Amino acid sequence: MATMTDVTQILNQIEQGDPSASDKLLPLLYDELRVLARQRLTNEKPGQTLQATALVHEVYLRLIGNDNESTGWNSRGHFFGAAAEAMRRILIENARRKGRIRHGGAGQRLDLMECDVPVSSSQVDLLELDDALRRLEAEDPGKALLVKLRFFAGLTVPEAAKVLGISVPTAERYWIFAKTWLFAELSAPS
Amino acid sequence: MNLPLPLEDIFFAAMEMSSSNERAAYLDRVCADDKALRAKVDRMLAAKVHVESFLELPAQITNATGVAKVKETVEMQIGPYKLLEPIGEGGMGTVYMAEQTDPVHRRVALKLIKTGMDTKHVIARFEAERQALALMDHPNISKVYDAGSTESGHPYFVMELVKGKPITEFCDEQQLDTRSRLELFQQVCLGVQHAHQKGIIHRDIKPDNVLVALYDDRPVPKIIDFGVAKATGERLTKKTMFTGFGQIVGTLAYMSPEQAQFNQEDIDTRCDIYSLGAILYEILVGEPPFDRGKINTQALGETLRMIREDEPTKPSTKLSAIGQPGQNTSGHSSAKKLGLALRGELDWIVMKSIEKDRSRRYGTANDFATDIDHYLRGETVVAHPPSRSYRLKKFCRKYKGPVLAASLIGVALLAGIIGTAVGLVQAESQRQVADAQRDRAVEAERQASARANELEQVSDFQAKIFSQIDPYTTGRLLVEGMTKSLDAALIEAGLSESERAERVKSFEILCKNVNATDAAVELIDQTILNPAVAEIDKQFADQPVVAAKLLEVIATLYHDLGSEAAALSLVRRVLDIRRLALGDDHLDTIETHGMIGVSLAYLGRLSEAEPYVREAMEKIRRNLGEEHPLALTWKSNLGGILSSSQGPTEESEQYLREALEGRRNSLGDEDPETLRSMIAYAQILKERGRIVDAELQMRRAFKGCRRELGVDDFQTLRAVNELASILLLQGKTGEATRMFRMNLESTRRVKGEEHPMTVRALINFASALSERGESVKAMSHKREAVELSRRVYGDDHPGTLNAINNLGNGYLAQRRFVVAEALFRESLEKKREVLGSEHPDTLKTMGNLGRALVQQGKLDEAELNLREALDTGRRIWVETDPNLQSATTNFGNLLIAQGKYTETVELLKEVKERLSHSKSDGDRLRYGNLLTAFGKAQMGRGEFVAAEVSLLEAQHLISENRGASYNNKFQCADAFVAFYAAWDAAKPGEGYSEKQTEWKRKLEDLVQPESGDDAVKGDQD
Q1: Which phi and psi (to 5°) does residue B222 adopt?
Q2: How many other β-carbons are positioned within 10 Å of the β-carbon of residue B301?
Q3: Residues B803-806: contacts with CB under 8 Å, at least 24 apart
Q4: Interatomic CA distance for residues B360 and B354, integer angstroms
């Protein structure tokens, strides 16, 4: 398990311009989130859901603490950017694995109580959404990041605006645009 | 790309334009020849109304399936072990028969731990003991070979494969006599002794871990799982109370008192002696020392207390209480004979082994086995009955156990209620001594009622205190209290301030994941109510009337906490007591009889409930007169129950009206009782279709409640809920949704997550969201509602059945007919059973099932359902009832599918006329849907011009309505396509084929169902 100092150290390195540091953050958060998700779900009845974003925030509190002053928005940005990406990967992996099992794929791996079916709130097929998100990312990385921060890390629009360094009205506008863009993409005849 | 303008700018510019012509011209200009761009903008503009709630709820993770999946997967490999088949399932995990190939080829048992344990620690703890485990070599011990973790991080243990039966089962199956049982058990002791000598404590000895198999026709017991409990065993901590304790339940019946406490520390070999004793108890008697049923049902805290403090019944006594052989008596030939055999020395042996004080148990498993040997040889046994002074000491100790911080409130209250009552009783009994020689039977009865009068005041006062127990506040205090004591403990442990702050913080985060109100309900049950009942039983064993009164208070509190089943069982006891003590005609007995009905009704067992309540009402009305407050109360109860069980009949309205008028006259408009009646009466007006009157009444009731009782009061919450329902029926969806949301939030806060009122509020809020067109949120709430109601209400409760129906509606609106059909079927089948086939709720689901069937072309079955719904509906609903209008439209759609156009037009004409005048959103959408059907029927009759008018009007009504579902829109557009095709066929070359193409495109452009568009307007939600 990671500790507070691991993460704050990495964040400091990033702030000081160490390019290799940000590579360390993602795997760390990825492990942290996966373990936490599993812990939370294994004692629950099947079908229990929990908000992915609540996990992200819990990990944040544990690894960084609640001290807004000492942790600059820049660091928070790095953290949530990486956490959103880690959470996205976890959900997508699970969605893929679920797909395999459903299609009778080779189930040689034993995944007893992995967090299983991701039920995104809207019942959007998560894999489809992810494909669309990648297309958006190709055209407009900033807006794609905004979606990740909102949907996978649970940041509010004003919080995401701070992370992205844009004004709140602009973030609102981006958000509406990105949602509509994705929705249109999902409803397009394939 | 060489775009003239970025997509973003085009999109926002186009969105601003209000006229569609202007927008089209603009897009033509800026997109020019870029067809892909134009298509994207068009799709985005079409999507914009749907995205309001899209992605607003963050992603969620769920654990959909558990162990079942493993069974399906054919071949699984864990390290060098190939899983062959599951051979057992326990609280901790599943045991598989597995094949080891490397380094040796053999069959083994592999236990896969399923709970969320910290694998590293489990393995580390196992490793610490591995050497010792390897030293164990005994015929009665199954060897543990290995431990490890799977790729996905689950710990597992590999053991010698034992194909045996739990020792208790084995004894019964083989019908062993007492001697054989004892001899078999001695072998178990020897195995345990061997382990203890190697320094290994088992910690979880129970019948499931002592397997007996026949070797050369000789039964040999083998103890399994050595080392497992220690490696996996999280000690019982306060945290366990919150994080689920499923895994220890199977173990509790055999757990020693020193293990049955929080933060237990020094466990030694003597805890295994206790468990052995508990097994011996079960082998001899057929049941473990403490009732397994109780352990399964009562709160964990109470069970632990029981294990630590309660003296179990002696085996011989338990056996005579159990009675007949062949049922529970371990297959003994004669229970009586065994009882005789047990009494005396064998009793002592067993009781010595399960002593609470471990220093009084056998020192070693060997001593235990030896004493059994003494018995078998007829020699004097070491064990002997406890002395009197020892028992007294134990009794005193029992009452000074540690108390949870928050339970202090409870203890104070409990002390109050019991203390006052005890005082009175003592005074009374002194008086009683003076005239002891009197005729006791008569006197006791007289005194009982006199005392009941005195105590009435006392217990009324106590009841008031009790009713102030508020789970919400208690929950908050609980968390605060625990945080404080945690901090204090950390200070004592000498942690630095920053370390402490960190720990406290993580504790607070933990607490945030717990609904404190729910925890408080649980805590109140454990620390106050459950002990209170036990105390009352003990203190007032010879004061039945007093006991009844006090139990009634507790029952009421259970009801307030939402634990209706617990309330019912107490009320039943109260009734039994009062029948005996006061007779059938005493007013209290009559009322208690009625209360059983009320309690049954809350549990959803409506048809059972009615006779109880009716009898109470009739008797009270006869005895006290029509206008007596109690008569009014029971009229009101009966009216309410009748309207739930039979629907809003004339009879139920009459009772509710009489109750309301009576209370107005005697109590005035502001009295809580009057307000309650007002709510009930408004509710039935709503159900009888008199919506405007209903709204008026309900608003009055709501305002009264808020003013007189406050916003968080139960009645106020109920009034809000009902008012919102009425508003929803009238299509005032905005105000209704706001009220439902407010209701859900307050109820959740005040009553906790798992309370029936919260469930109802959630169901209703989800419905309202549907009608608002917020389909995505609605759908996820609907799912949650079904899950929660199954848990809180149970599978057959009308509330659950409605939640299922509503979820079905969500799917129907998305045109996912197969799922919808299945849900409606489930709901309908049970509603017919629980509510009967003439209940309005049953009819609604029937209609919905019919709709799902029509859409799938299953017309015959659809007709059966829709005809029944319409025929019955015509009998029970007034003409203006929206439900009847929907039933009619549904049937119309069936007729169209059957090609009976003229009949459709005839059927729908009247409703169409009525709906065309209404202004409410709900009615206008219903009207739109009806016109879609009507237009299709006209088309079928060849009346093309009239049909086009109907369809265009329908399209207008549906497209402007926020609550219109994907299904509504789809049906309308689909009707257009069919219509222009037919018109084109009748009059080719008039441009109808182009219109057909245009509508085809519009149909295709409609958002696909997976996107979660699911409003349920126009159906019978």
Answers
A1: -130, 130
A2: 19
A3: B803/B759, B803/B763, B805/B841, B805/B844, B805/B845, B805/B848, B805/B1021, B806/B763, B806/B766, B806/B767, B806/B770, B806/B782, B806/B1016, B806/B1021
A4: 9
Element of type H or E holding B63: strand B60-63
Per the structure block, which two tokens stand in for B769? 């969201």
**pLDDT tens figures, B273-303:** 999 999 999 998 888 898 877 776 666 667 7
Q: Is B494 in CB contact (< 8 Å) with chain A?
A: no
Q: What is the pLDDT of residues B593-635, one digit of tens each?
A: 999 998 888 777 777 888 999 999 999 999 888 888 888 889 9
Task: Count CA atoms closer than 13 A to B197's CA, side-chain side.
Answer: 12
pLDDT digits (tens, 9 = 90+) for B455-507: 454 445 444 444 445 555 555 555 666 667 667 767 777 777 777 777 777 66
Please give the backbone phi and psi of residue B348, each rounded to the nearest 5 degrees, phi first.
-65, -40
Report the relative pairing of strands B106-113 and B155-160 from DSSP bridges: antiparallel
First to last CA, chain A: 43
| Residue B273: both structure tokens together | 């002696």
Report d(CA B301, CA B299) in Å as an integer: 5
Interface A-B: count of C-beta contacts within 8 A: 193
Q: How distant is the Cα of B790 from the closest Cα of chain A, in angstroms?
A: 13
Tens of pLDDT, residue by residue over B742-761, are 889 888 887 777 777 788 88
Is the minimum CB–CB distance between A38 and chain B shorter than 8 Å? yes
Give dist(CA A186, CA A181) in Å, integer: 9
Query: Does the distance separating the beta carbons of B509 and A58 come in below 8 Å?
Result: yes
CATH says A122-190 is which class? mainly alpha
- Residues in B closer than 8 angstroms to A144, CB to CB, are none
Could you list the active site residues of B?
204
Is some CB atom of chain B closer than 8 A to the CB atom of A60? no
Chain B residues lying within 8 Å of A118, measured CB to CB: 59-62
Give residue limits of the domains in chain A. 1-119, 122-190
| pLDDT reported for residue B515 | 54
Q: Do A37 and B61 touch (CB under 8 A)?
A: yes
- Least confident span in B346-355, B524-533, B766-775, B912-921: B524-533
Cα–Cα nearest to B648, from B678, B681, B671 = B681
A154 part of contact set with chain B, CB < 8 Å: yes
B1004 touches chain A (CB under 8 A): yes
B 736-775 residues inside an 8 A Cβ radius of A: none
Quickly list DSSP for B531-600. Answer: HHHHHHHHHTTT-HHHHHHHHHHHHHHHHHHT-HHHHHHHHHHHHHHHHHHH-TTSHHHHHHHHHHHHHH
Burial class (CB in 10 A: 0-12, 13-18, 19+), B586: middle
Distance of CA B380 to the CA centre of its chain: 54
> Do A31 and A2 form a contact (C-beta atoms < 8 A)?
yes
ipTM above 0.85, yes or no: no
Contact of B89 with chain A, judged by CB distance below 8 Å, is answered with: no
Report the gap between the CA of B932 and the closest CA in chain A (Å). 25
Q: Is the Cβ pair B51, A180 closer than 8 Å?
A: yes
Query: Which positions in chain A touch B16 (Cβ < 8 Å)?
Result: none
- pLDDT tens-digit readout, B917-956: 877 677 788 889 889 989 988 988 888 888 898 999 999 9
